[in-house]
Amino acid sequence: MKAVLDIGSNSVRLRCFSDGKIMYNGKITSQLGENMSKDGLLDENSKTRTTKAVKTLAEKAEELGVARGNILAFATAAIRNSKDGRAYAEVLEKETGVKIDIISGETEAEIGLFGALSGGDGAVIDIGGASSELAVKKDGKVIYSHSLPFGAVTLYDECGEDFDKIIAKTNELVKTYGQVPLLQKLVGIGGTATSVAHALSGQKTYVPEVIQGLIVKKEALKTLVLRLSVMTVEERNKIFADKKRARVIVCGGALLLAVLDYLNLDEFSASEADNLEGYCLFKTGAL
């Protein structure tokens, strides 16, 4: 049994694998990246929520037979980019017994590629809580990788519910991706991509098997984002079971839409397989 823990900017996730199969999939939304854009420091309440989430999921891994010292844990943008991120990671390691690998934006993009594409070629976009990674793989080699230091949570911190400001900011941000190699297909991973795919799937209950490979058309995404933008957070809560996701989904969806426009693509394919699989493959060579 292998256990992989992702300490993300929006949520903490645990996925356990055995003989290539997912044995457990758990997530706690702690929004570690919340309010970080104000002064570059991690919010104390966010750190408390995240520490509790890591402890809870580490205990679950132990129940499944994986010792805390053997959990493959990695941290992304909130810890990587914040002024006190490394200090918090040290405290988190001491309090939870879980060793944490603070990965670079480029590594985050690459493990997303490995996880979503199962070793094949293609392009992957991962709209996270505090960063958004775009990477392209061709002929077995990563030919492009860039991490944008903004995600759904940090974008919400800056723009709130001001939709005009959100659109202006996302259109400005995607230009920093620069010259992206010509691509025809894009795979979307992470909470924003899978959440909008679920909202457009027609399914009341989130079913991973339905989301995996689901094609999301740009026009359908645009209609959804516009509809969500005029709703209150309470109204969005009726669509998204995760209340914290409902708060930031307009920002994440708008950023994803801006990426599609920038790349001149009409759709993306949602993937449940993501950087958790990729990190496991990166560290051990197998699931």
SSE layout and pairings?
Layout: E1 2-7, E2 12-18, E3 21-28, H1 36-39, H2 44-63, E4 72-75, H3 77-81, H4 85-96, E5 100-102, H5 105-117, E6 122-127, E7 132-138, E8 141-148, H6 152-159, H7 163-173, E9 187-189, H8 191-201, H9 208-211, E10 215-217, H10 218-229, H11 233-237, H12 243-263, E11 267-270, H13 275-284
Parallel strand pairs: 1-4, 4-5, 6-9, 9-11
Antiparallel strand pairs: 1-2, 2-3, 6-7, 7-8, 10-11
Helix pairs in contact: 2-4, 5-13, 6-12, 7-12, 8-12, 10-12
Would you write up a description of this structure?
The chain is α/β, with parallel strands linked by helices and 287 residues long. It has 2 domains: 2-102, 2-Layer Sandwich (Nucleotidyltransferase, domain 5); 105-270, Nucleotidyltransferase, domain 5 (2-Layer Sandwich), CATH 3.30.420. The chain is built from 13 helices and 11 strands. It has helices at residues 36-39, 44-63, 77-81, 85-96, 105-117, 152-159, 163-173, 191-201, 208-211, 218-229, 233-237, 243-263, 275-284, and strands at 2-7, 12-18, 21-28, 72-75, 100-102, 122-127, 132-138, 141-148, 187-189, 215-217, 267-270. The chain has a 6-stranded mixed beta sheet with strand order 8-7-6-9-11-10, with helices on both faces. Strands 3-2-1-4-5 form a 5-stranded mixed beta sheet, sandwiched between helices. A hairpin with a 4-residue loop joins strand 6 (122-127) and strand 7. Helix 8 packs across helix 12. The mean pLDDT is 96.
